[in-house]
Amino acid sequence: MAVWLEQAGDDFEARFAAFLTTKREVSEDVNATVKAIIDDVRARGDAALAEYSLKFDGLDFATTSMRVTQAEIDAAFASVSPELIDALRLAAERIERHHARQMPKDDIYEDAIGVGLGSRWTAIDAVGLYVPGGTASYPSSVLMNAVPARVAGVPRVVMVVPAQGGAINPTVLAAAKIGGVTEIYRIGGAQAVAALAYGTETIAPVAKIVGPGNAYVAAAKRQVFGTVGIDMIAGPSEVLVIADKDNNPDWIAADLLAQAEHDRGAQSILITDDAAFARSVETAVERQLNTLTRAETAAASWQDFGALIIVPDLNAAVPLANRIAAEHLELAVADPDALMAGIRNAGAIFIGRHTPEVIGDYVGGSNHVLPTARSARFSSGLSVLDFVKRTSILRLGPEQLKQLAPAAIALATSEGLDAHARSVAIRLNLED
Amino acid sequence: MAVWLEQAGDDFEARFAAFLTTKREVSEDVNATVKAIIDDVRARGDAALAEYSLKFDGLDFATTSMRVTQAEIDAAFASVSPELIDALRLAAERIERHHARQMPKDDIYEDAIGVGLGSRWTAIDAVGLYVPGGTASYPSSVLMNAVPARVAGVPRVVMVVPAQGGAINPTVLAAAKIGGVTEIYRIGGAQAVAALAYGTETIAPVAKIVGPGNAYVAAAKRQVFGTVGIDMIAGPSEVLVIADKDNNPDWIAADLLAQAEHDRGAQSILITDDAAFARSVETAVERQLNTLTRAETAAASWQDFGALIIVPDLNAAVPLANRIAAEHLELAVADPDALMAGIRNAGAIFIGRHTPEVIGDYVGGSNHVLPTARSARFSSGLSVLDFVKRTSILRLGPEQLKQLAPAAIALATSEGLDAHARSVAIRLNLED
Question: Is the dihedral of CA B26, B31, B36, B42 positive or negative?
Fold first, then answer.
């Protein structure tokens, strides 16, 4: 099933390097289709949205409103079991408390020569949140995107969600209510992204669009980038578990399968220093696989992209983990802190035997939107920082200008920029 | 010359909205050419680089080394005037001191129920810095990109710069030395971006690429995005000056021209409450224009994209400024703080009559790489944050897992993810 790699083997480096660059996604080229849809929504606004919704979602805006009403949201909320509402509330509260600590502070100060400098943070004015329809419509993702926006102070959080025949998963609407979403429209696909970016008669434009989606949504986000901001384009999920032999193989197998069941392109990797333990985990994976509703997806992921890597000792796992730069990294070992000190590249680290990654998906408080496909080498998970922006501040008086002017003029002159030099020089003889 | 807009006029809103969406760049479609170059560098490495450098830069790597040697860097440094070296050093020191304050702090804590949570920041392992050749080769930009990377703790900062016939601007090399660049290669264009992203025999790959470049470089950065991180793709520069009538029109004209001389697509806007003052500034711009080395560029920018906007009172400038979301905003008014409180969207704010934007280009200490083309609505200037990434940390013991498990299982079950639910549930009956 999964690939088996032993670091002691001769060809390990070559096989590991090849494993690292295995593509797990076929990127469909839908750019031309998407461009036509975006152009159409820009040109015709609501009328275009109505046509696409009729065509793709079987939804007639002549009889169903594009905007989901407060009464609909409240009714959906009331239809969700109290147990699930409590779970959503617990998750939202924990996400809110953790993300509140991420809010950056303004830093306005005067330096030694009296120059005023600073960084001032403000919330983005309006954010769009794309929520996929069907089975990929996850209430937990609504919370993970909406709550940090609310914490950042974004006044408008606009959710779009495609609604086949008008129906939206009531738990998604309940999550939107709990997460502080301020407007919801039942539109999806590239047309929804276009509406958020450019606005229509009904939908005022936003300044940034976040949230996962299919190939059309991802292509649309790339195309509107610049007009609005976008979050990362997430790839299939992945977990790396570093485990010693003292783990219950069934626990580790369950963790590997929790990734694999997401998507055929998901990836689950175990690194251990004990080949017998790896075999036990492999056996447990195969046994548990059969019991899953999404067995077919999980089996495909495990077969195509799963890996069991045997290292001579656990310290050797650290440089491999840094090269893999996993979205999720579990450290199920006796002394996780010793390993953690050496980890540089990981979206999130789950420490010890009682921190399955799944806790982070729902109720840990940290964000489950994390960098995939080795991008943890250069990027971070979603946070409050994604919903704010920083303005630099500079303030000089005549004295400070006099002190800094010669250097500025020298640099401007060396760069051949006369007007730059003059803009400073002209102020040196006149003070008010 | 520049457009004249009076808010008191009937058609102001329509004209202002049109003005806001004026495109200032023709984006050349070079994607196919760039893709071929990138594929070639991936396939053939150094050999491909050598061919492109011979073809585009007239540079033969058989006789000139691709890597710029330390002796060459030292010789370049020695050839630059002491006055200019001092200016570079002053700039670098001020940039370093300001950016050091931006370094985010780790936040590792335990919450009320004993769950360990945290954010840990680490520097990116290696960063590539693209520096354009020819007249767009600005030593100040080398400092603005390299110093924050050094402050962040990035161990490898790899500069690439095209060198027509082998020559590199000595001031650029001096800035690289002062800014802490660790490797320099005389390559440019899409091929240099490909080499940084994928590596060659000579150049080890980096994890992120920053710095400005022409259409080929911009397209290459977009194409390698995902394999590596990239910074924003900067558009033409822009300044918005909000000024009252008590300014010297010549000072304000010089500031407007300092933007205009950058690029034919640059934009300079004045908002004032005094039409006579605006006329005086316009006259001063026309007078100063003739004296500039780059008069042709500045004149084209001012004619095509310059604007003078007259508002009934200065408070009315604030909402317009937020819609323009300028890269640079000067507040040359008697009470700048009153206006500043209302500004939400701006890359950088320059406060008062003695803070020309040019100071921020060179020696203010803040970064001159700032969001253009209204992207200050959703993004920020370059900072130390662009050179670090955050890893989330989660740590539960058996007790914490027991407390959070029911909600996690309820949410996983509602999302139809069996293995997610099992990964938590399986740990509830066994504790070690």
Answer: positive
